[in-house]
Amino acid sequence: MKNISGPMNMKRHYIKHHIEELGTLPCVKTGKCIDCLHERRSCNYRIIIEGELPEDKGRINVVLVGEALGI
Questions:
Q1: pLDDT tens, position by position, 29-56
Q2: Alpha-carbon 62 to chain mean position
Q3: Which end of the chain is flanked by fewer CB atoms within 10 Å, N or C?
Q4: Minimal CA–CA distance to 12: which of 58, 61, 57, 71?
């Protein structure tokens, strides 16, 4: 995520939405993560699902696809 999809996605957002601040991200400039602390970095959101709370039962679905679909 940090070295492939994260930098690619941030570069995509920079190009598509013309958000100049994203152009200053090291991963957008270099194409790979350098563990920066930029407030707009995509690495701020990483999720590991290990279980669920009883009140959230059935709320999360994970779909595994057995083919390449992009990034």
A1: 999 888 888 888 888 777 788 888 888 8
A2: 16
A3: C
A4: 71
